[in-house]
């Protein structure tokens, strides 16, 4: 808990300034890579500033200071943990190659449901249509076993009866 806010700010301000200057350097030159000592320093300053932010937040002191520290911690977090994409993931060939391998695998896993859908489409839907006397498309008559002999369903093709005339 912070008892003296001014003293706390005087002690912590040099850390915050160093972190801010290091972040300004990194944000100004995106191609700049940190050497190991700078990276370690950035990590240490980030953790100390995050701890300072925690103290200020829990003490409910100085909303302007809290906002300043939140922005500073967010910038440091982004520099430490955000990795910008090198190329657009849309144009990576491995992603497109994955479609050609994933689709057959998925189809094989779900083949039961595909077979059920084909069965419902070719048998159940025409059967229900023929029961209610609606006009069926001509292609459905080839799938229906007996109802095509009934002219009320709209089919004009007749079925040959074996063993008769």
User: Got a strand count?
Assistant: 0
Structural class: mainly alpha
* Run of helices and strands: HHHHHH
Number of domains: 2
Report strand %: under 5%
Give the helix tally.
Answer: 6
Mean pLDDT: 76
Radius of gyration: 36 Å
Low-confidence stretches: 146-150
Taking the sheet with the most strands, its summary is: none
End-to-end Cα distance? 104 Å
Give the overall shape, derived from the CA principal axes: elongated
Q: What is the share of helical residues?
A: 55-70%
Properties at a glance:
165 residues; mainly alpha; 6 helices; 66% helix
Give the topology, please.
Layout: H1 5-28, H2 36-59, H3 63-81, H4 93-109, H5 111-131, H6 138-141
Summarize the structure.
The chain is an all-alpha fold. It contains six helices and no strands.
Written description of the protein model:
This protein is mainly α and 165 residues long. The chain folds into 2 domains: 77 residues; 49 residues, no CATH class. It has 6 helices and no strands. It is elongated. The protein starts with a helix and ends in a 24-residue tail after the last helix. About 3% of the residues have low confidence.
